[in-house]
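Dear support,

I submitted the protein below through the web form. The confirmation email said the job was done, but the results page showed an empty box. After a refresh the structure appeared. I'm attaching both so you can tell me whether what I see now is the final result or a partial one.
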Amino acid sequence: MAKVPDTPENATNCICGECPSFPGEGGFFCAKGKGAKDVRRRGCICTDCKNFREFDLADGYYCADGAAGDGPQ
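What the results page shows now:
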């Protein structure tokens, strides 16, 4: 799985704040890694994100499991 470059353009594509599982702070988890707060898994919208499609990501819940390309998701 590809890593998502931590660039301003990719950060602009981020939709983490719209997610029902959003932990309330942070974002751009596919590039930056999991957040500091615990995540209640209430659904994941990673697959709707432009970065998900552009970088051919798999799975989701990067907010809870870590950045794309950091190991098994």
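Response: this is the final, complete result; the empty box was a page-load delay. The helical segments are 8-13, 29-32, 50-54, 62-65.
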